[in-house]
Amino acid sequence: MTALALLDESAAGLERRIQLALMAFAAGDAFGVAYEFLPEKAVVNLDSLSRRREDEDWPFGGVSDDTHLSILTILAVQPGDPKASAAIFLRRLREAIPTLRGLGPTTRAALGLAVEARDIDLIGTTNGGMMRTALLGLAYNENHRFARRAMVHALAGATHSDPTALCCAVLASSLFSHALDHDATTTPREVLRYESTELESVPEDVLDLLRDNEWQPPADGISLSPVATLGAVIWVVGRSRTIAETFRLSCELGGDTDTVAALSGGLVAARMNSLDLLDLPWIDDVMWSEIPQVTHSSRLLADMRAGR
Question: Per the domain annotation, does 5 fall within a domain?
Fold first, then answer.
């Protein structure tokens, strides 16, 4: 399946823009997995997809749990009922275990799967909740921000318990919500600062990130920390004029490159409403056939935003 074949040509306006954002998220994920947590940072080649460390169990062009879990999260949403949405997500997550790859420690723990000893302390505190709920912001405009926050908090909380992880999830969703209603002149940091003023509680490490106009990515790469990941997204999007640039910058950072590339690419696509994603020379090498739900998920998000 090609990217153009997946793109619903009948979709217009809002739905098409949302679909491009979801496709950019998936493309960034597929591109970024080859650079994820390498022992040394690699030169990023924007002309082609690379295979993930010669991993025979990882198909060429395949996405990670970032995309699969984001779609599962979208499909679980029951408008107006965050608690039921979280329960549905957990049930479907267990059903999807055989098809998922690249699961983080928190999700593995939630499913009762083995977690490596070195990752035990990360359970409940990682960027996974933020990663898979950020796209939900596309379903809510500014007038429905309280409903968005409640839904994101419940769905991120289905696996994550740490206040910082939950706060970052809500903040990330505000970036995607804002992207569809405003032009791209407002910086991500400005959006997040405004969002934070309306939240009941914001952990100090998150406030430190939002205050720091000179934040720089750590030399050893982006960790699974939600604060570090959110900082990386702010940094990448603020320096990107195209979706391709977001993928390059995200992967040059090292560490959790697929998550940063997915979030940054999806956000730039939503902000700019550009078709330049389809010009990437490797875009049809993404295994679109394993995520056909992108089209349906986009329609659901558009319908929710439009109040249908």
Answer: no
Q: What is the pTM of this model?
A: 0.93
- Does the pLDDT value for residue 55 go beyond 70? no
| Burial status of residue 43 (CB atoms within 10 A of its CB: 0-12, 13-18, 19 or more) | exposed
d(CA 31, CA 147): 33
How many angstroms separate the Cα of 304 from the Cα of each of 90, 111, 271? 21, 29, 19
Higher per-residue pLDDT: 163 or 42: 163
The answer to whether residue 83 sits within a structural domain is: yes
pLDDT of 144: 96
Q: Residue 58 and residue 266: Cα distance in Å, rounded?
A: 23
Distance, in Å, from the CA atom of 263 to the CA atom of 207, rounded to the nearest integer, reads: 20
Q: What is the CATH number of the domain that holds 240?
A: 1.10.4080.10
pLDDT mean across residues, the chain: 91
164-187 as b/e, with b when 16 or more CB fall inside 10 Å?
A: bbbbbbbbbbbbbbbbbeeeeeee
Domain residues for the domain of 155 are 10-306
Query: What is the rounded distance in angstroms from the CA atom of residue 171 to the CA atom of residue 25?
Result: 17
| First vs last C-alpha separation in the chain | 29
213, HSE (Cβ side, Cα atoms, 13 Å): 2
Average pLDDT over residues 8-34: 90
Reduce the DSSP state of residue 55 to 3 states and report it: coil
